[in-house]
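lol forgot to send this yesterday, sorry. struct tokens for the thing we talked abt
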């Protein structure tokens, strides 16, 4: 069982940066793949980024490649999403997710944190 709590969302101007954090509880955090998803108003939830348990492999949605960076610190049970060069279309609720097998279909979700990018 894994519990996830996101933080770090807020309001930022276009071109700015934010770093989201996701604190996980549970003894097996280091063996789980972790990911970030987002959901904008009126749209379906979409994949943003993922990182394997070792941290050696990462995946990104095309829309955020080169701007966002996912990382994890297994000693702190925390995963991060560094978001640079933010655009108004990045505005969404961002969710942290975890899964032991397929992070694209995660078993565990956080409650979400709002990111708003003004133009």
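and heres what i got for the seq, position by position
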């Amino acid at each position: 069982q894994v519990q996830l709590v996101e933080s770090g969302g807020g309001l930022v101007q276009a071109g700015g940066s934010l770093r989201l954090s996701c604190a996980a509880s549970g003894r097996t955090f280091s063996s789980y793949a972790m990911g970030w998803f987002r959901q904008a108003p009126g749209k379906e939830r979409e994949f943003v980024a993922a990182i394997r348990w070792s941290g050696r492999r990462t995946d990104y949605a095309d829309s955020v490649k080169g701007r966002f960076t996912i990382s994890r610190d297994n000693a702190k049970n925390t995963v991060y999403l560094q978001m640079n060069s933010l655009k108004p279309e990045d505005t969404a609720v961002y969710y942290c997710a975890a899964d032991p097998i397929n992070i694209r279909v995660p078993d565990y979700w956080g409650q979400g944190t709002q990111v708003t990018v003004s133009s």
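The two ends are 40 Å apart (CA to CA). anyway ping me if u want another try
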